[in-house]
Amino acid sequence: MTSTYYQLIKDFQKKAYTGIYLFYGEEPYYIDELSDYLTENVLSETEKEFNLAVLYGRDSNIATVVNYCKQFPMVGERQLLVLREAQDMDLKKEESLDFLLSYIRHPLQSTILVICYKYKAPPAKLLKALGNSDKAVTLESKKKYESDMPVWIAGQVKNNGYSISDKAAIMLVEYLGTNLEKINNELGKLYINHPKHKVITENEIELYIGISKDYNIFEFQKAIAKKNVLKSNQIANHFSLNPGENSLFKTIPMLFGFFSKVLLIHSLTDKSEASILSKAKLSNYTKFDYFDAYRNYNANKIQQIIGWIRECNTRAIGIDNYSADHGELLRELVFKILH
Fold first, then answer.
1. Which of 70, 84, 136, 323 would be a feasible disulfide site paired with 130, CB 3.0-4.6 Å?
2. Cβ(97)–Cβ(73) below 8 Å
3. With bands split at pLDDT 50, 70 and 90, how would you rate the model's confidence at 18?
4. Residues 85-137 pLDDT 10s
């Protein structure tokens, strides 16, 4: 049986557990959240001393896992085994996998087995066996697209009793990307310092997280998309003076990704808004910057810009560059883009 993160949390809060859980996929955040929740809440503190085991794939084998699962709890009604980093185990060996599949067909009622398999899909035979079992639940933790992140952040904030402005959410995405754990940690700083009845805005992001509301990559892309020469150069100069917070090696990939999507928009036959949002994976929060860039830069110019960005990256790592520092390289790139 498959499930979702929020459905599983509801089940766990009701103490409704099943015998085997498999959490797998490219995004480790939900895998860790669910396994940590079970580790903390399934057993009492006294029961944990006797009935909780946490194993790691690189240090364990299937025989050890299965043998522990077949033991009876020393205290209380159930025992919990959490197998972390299961992707490090050799499940390609048929004898190992068959040993685990045999247990899955006849699990011990008093054991809860949690398998955490990160960054990739487990063997198909294992997924099929768990899918066919009424005593097992699987959850695939998929990597999120950047366009999904503002909505995800708003949902996380709402679940914690707060609210956040669209621009504040976008600033977090531009600064932290799609790393859910980092974003959640930064949100924790906001919860500590911010009253629930007030909306979290870009001012709080700047104050508590340290992301400038005026000089960040989001505002930089917006200024370039609008061909705002003054604002673009102001931000480029700010980045040059603060390289620790605004590394060129962080700015270049973001500009490359931005203009690559604008070039994709130029290539689309169907240029309806719905088609653009779907094909380019844009969010409603950031679409206007891409639309501005699409109107202000034709396809040939975009191809030139992407070439200049590549050249800037090459020179930034020291190839064919004998004197220009990162600040000079960025200012030169902005000049080429805008003129």
1. 136
2. no
3. very high
4. 988 887 767 777 888 888 899 999 999 999 999 988 888 888 899 988 889 99
Domain residue extents for the chain: 5-140, 146-209, 217-338
Task: Report d(CA 240, CA 108) in Å as an integer.
Answer: 62
- Could you name the CATH architecture of 217-338? Up-down Bundle (1.20)
For 193-208, what is the mean pLDDT?
Answer: 87
How is residue 171 written in tokens? 């600033």
Give the separation between CA 104 and CA 88, rounded to whole angstroms.
20
d(CA 165, CA 213): 12
C-alpha closest to that of 167 among 10, 3, 289: 289
Q: CA-to-CA distance for 98 and 126, rounded, in angstroms?
A: 9
C-alpha 144/C-alpha 192 separation (Å) is 26
- What's the token pair of residue 104? 């899955």
Alpha-helical (H) ranges within the chain are 5-13, 28-41, 45-51, 62-69, 94-105, 124-131, 149-159, 166-176, 180-193, 202-204, 217-225, 229-241, 248-267, 273-279, 287-296, 299-316, 326-338
pLDDT of residue 333: 94
pTM: 0.69
Q: Radius of gyration over alpha carbons of the chain, in Å? A: 25
Predicted pLDDT of residue 99? 86
**42/90: higher pLDDT:** 42
Task: Please give the CATH architecture assigned to the domain spanning 146-209.
Answer: Orthogonal Bundle (1.10)
Decide: 196 and 161 in contact? Cβ < 8 Å: yes
Residue reference for tokens 């240029």: 271
Q: What are the distances in angstroms from CA 100 to CA 133, 136, 231?
A: 13, 13, 61
Residues 6+ apart with CB under 8 A from 242: 215
Q: What are the b/e assignments for 256-290, b being 16+ CB within 10 Å?
A: bebbebbbbbbeeeeeeeeebeeebebbebbeebb
- CATH class held by domain 5-140: alpha beta
